[in-house]
Structures
1.
Amino acid sequence: MSAGRLIYVIGPSGAGKDSVLAWLMQHAEPQDRLHLARRSISRPGHEASEAHEALTPQQFAALRDAGAFAMHWSANGLDYGVRHAELAPLREGGTVLVNGSRGWLEQARRRFPELIVAQIVASAEVLAQRLQERGRETPEAIAARLQRARQLALAPHEVDISVVNDTTLDAAGAELLRRIGRLG
């Protein structure tokens, strides 16, 4: 499909994907040619930890039905999409990072056979602590997220890159940057 690399970043809620990806984009060098795909999400902009295109569920459905997204999925009661234009840097040999969903991984692999899977994980204890500290969910919702994390956990042989984010953001971000640099 392209001369670039498409990296699909997955991991459970609380693993720190948004934080690690933000760190990566702040610390990458221009020659790394990294692009973080902006997602379209069916929630208001003020409720997210990432810059995204906020859409109503009806707007999202209309765009999805019109074929506006290169990839799209639903998770945790929200709809997520990545517009085709967000993958354009692939044509110029760039690396595009997509903050994806473990539940849509098989579809992503079928649609993009060259897909590189990067997994950001944290121990169950760290996940539980981070989810509680966020204060956005009830204890029942946190338990459901932790159960989903266990159900969708991938074995090491199922991913190309795995980063444990149990200590500092600097350590996890530097490890991800190093591992991406090793790809080519």
Note: The radius of gyration is 16 Å.
2.
Amino acid sequence: MLVRRFAFLAVICILAVGQARAQAWEDIDPSTVGWSVEKLDAALRKAKALKPTALMILQDGKVIARSGDVSRKVKMASVRKSLLSALYGIAVEEGRIDLSASLADLGIDDNHPRLTDEEKTATVRDLLTSRSGIYHPAAHETADIRRKRPVRGSHAPGTFWFYNNWDFNALGTIYRQQTGEDIFKSFQSRIAEPIGMEDFSIEDGRYAREKLSEHPAYPFSLSARDAARFGQLFLNGGTWGTTQVIPATWVKESTAAYSWAKRIRQGYGYMWWTLPEDTWGPNAFYASGYGGQIIAVVPSKRLVVVQTVDLSQNPKGVRTSAFIDVMKDIASASP
């Protein structure tokens, strides 16, 4: 009898996962919920001219518009950082990672030239906010970051913001070390499956290693419709259905601004960008990756907007500023 009961429960669990994965987005006619169809059509034409792979617009968890191939998996570049940030929220809640722990406490170092004692005073929180003060060469750096990277020792930990791949990559190492989990397996079991992602598998992540640093990057590929689920999860305050997938306190904390990129009037949280309140209302934020990979969340409009760009098809990509202009038009069309 006990064996039968366990077998029955196993079948129920398998069916539940299958149902979560099979649940597709619900499309809704925007004209029936107060959208300006004329303005929305103009925004969609503007977006299409940028040649993205896919675009999805959600309001209240329903699809207002979609274009392109929303099931095509695309390399999401720096969006990876926001995905890891979500996993950190779970690990912190479970007591497996302490944000106040220093690199010295955690035994984190790097290849020659090794970290100095001062650099090792940087905390996990300093890395999450990209304020570590550690300007060691890093894997997956762009030429722009290499050119702008400050001199080693020029800023003490916690005192200066610089968008720094060393911080982001070392956080991947710390996550694996402190949780004992692979990043991609963890994302699949802790986020992708609970929210019913339709396309993601652990094969869609890899570790990008370079000799200059012992901390690899961890690029992801996602489809637009799966990226939209991740954005909706954060709009929902970390809940999916009746399940609290990401702690609500972490959603709020990680998407608050701790630094400001004054040139573009945007803030930076725990590996999320934030948008100015005077334009977007309170608590708007987005994940951004090179070439136009975007997951944007605008709580004041109950909106999630996702754009993916396959750079093998559109080598020039889409500038973030161009996407932001489109998103303003989308917001103007919404009720």
Note: The longest strand covers residues 62-68.
3.
Amino acid sequence: MSIEDQILKRIIAIPKGELLLPTDFSELGSSEAVRLSLFRLEKEGVIRRVAQGIYVRPKVSSFIGILIPTAEEIVKAIAKRDRIKTVPTGSYALNALGLSTQVPLNLVFLTDGSPRVINIGKRKIRLKKTTPKNLLAKGQISSLAIQALKEIGNGKVKPEEENKIIGLLKEEDVKDLKHDIALAPVWIQKIMKKALEDGKN
């Protein structure tokens, strides 16, 4: 069985919608042979290229056609492939926490990897190099909360926004929350600590 046939057999066994990386098939042949096989399978319409070196066997909706993976899924795949850390920032962090209904067209993620811009259709994902401290947060909610509050700005957080964030932080693992509070600016620490204080009552 050729490398292409082996890759095809494995792809068909994977649920539609899952992202595929060339490294997923590295034991089947050389990197060049795997890359060429994926290129041919893309031309045949078996898989779809969503970003450089990232493919998907797309799901198809009877209402809207081919479903493209979310930006977050693509960033996770890039992080896995390149062995880097990423943290969503800005308006995307606000949207992820339910503090904004706007889905930003261009997304910014902090990373310890190489800075770059990834084009996905009309959208852009920017990986922005940052200091290690900004990537040390352990909790998913608390990490988003820190970035969302930074986006809103010191002194500009509305009471309803603060209450929403505190409510979400109560769902965070206490150990992770305490760890992440220490990483935040002092004004953000004061807000985050309220989740711990409320939890004691």
Note: The two ends are 65 Å apart (CA to CA).
4.
Amino acid sequence: MTDKAQWVEWFPGLSRLDAPTKQLLLTRSTIVTVPKDTTIFGPGNSPENMLFLLDGTVRVQQVSDTGHEIVLYRIEAGQSCVLTTACLLAYDAYSAEGITETPVDAAAIPRGVFDDLVSGSKPFRDFVFAAFSKRITDLFLMIDEVAFQRLDVRLADKLIKLSGGADMVATTHQKLSVELGTAREVISRQLQEFQRRGWIAQARGSVSLLDRMQLQQLADHNAS
């Protein structure tokens, strides 16, 4: 489906809404296009719209007072932002930032429409809270990984996932540290150990996977 004018049909929960509610979403929404590497929200800002992502990817990350960063989750096409949902429901400001990793198209509905539908449409309310519940569960899993799982296991797993089946990952030590919620120096030491074992080779801005089997065996500890 490519007709963004009928974007509600891209979201299974919204496509089951009654015709008047669908029409309200379509007539009151605005399709916005945002370039890559744009901060679309940040700490201290209050959301004025609920965003439904149609194309692209948005990275949501937390930044501490000391500048330490950790990726909380990513929003893909066909998803909404749980942090925006939480802020809209609580009339609160953002505590994290959202940055576009690719060019993004999204449907934006005003806060007033969101409020009216949450209070007046059970199917819409069910859609909002189902997405909210799933993302909260994902966040608890991430907290468990950061707090309790070995970094070498998590790093091996992240390299394999980022590779997408290829033999090379375009990334940096800093980006990996943000992904895994640790210091860049810690990532550097662990990558050096992987390289010493002959599992990877490093170059500026990239990591080559030389022994995917060994990395996969280590990553499989995530599931054990």
Note: The mean pLDDT is 89.
